[in-house]
Amino acid sequence: MTVYRFLADFVAVVHFAYVAFVVLGWVAILVGLARRWGWARNFWFRTIHLLLIAVVVAEALGGVVCPLTTWERELRVLAGEQAQPGSFVGRLVNAVLFYDLPEWVFRVLHCLFGAAVLLTLILAPPRRPWRKTQVG
Hints:
Layout: H1 3-34, H2 43-62, H3 67-78, H4 88-97, H5 103-123
């Protein structure tokens, strides 16, 4: 395995982790809110989660290809592979992340998901760490 192939697989795993954090994070937030778990209103977790989906929405609205996708493809070419992943890890990760649909479908889905995350943030806002809770 060349170093470029390893790096391409690493980028694919990072990409998968990014997507998993955004999607599963939102599901966990919803479950946590329903069960009244305190961490579901953690300011930093919710802010990072919103920022990550905001980047995806901005890319979708701007028609920008995700840099992680670009880097992975370029690394695969440097490894002497086609732009598709050639290793088990690469195939596994990409089978979950990429589908053969028109680009506009992904733009709409990304924007709808971003709107759902934002709506969750508005309807169930996080606790601000700089506010003191009253003891009484």
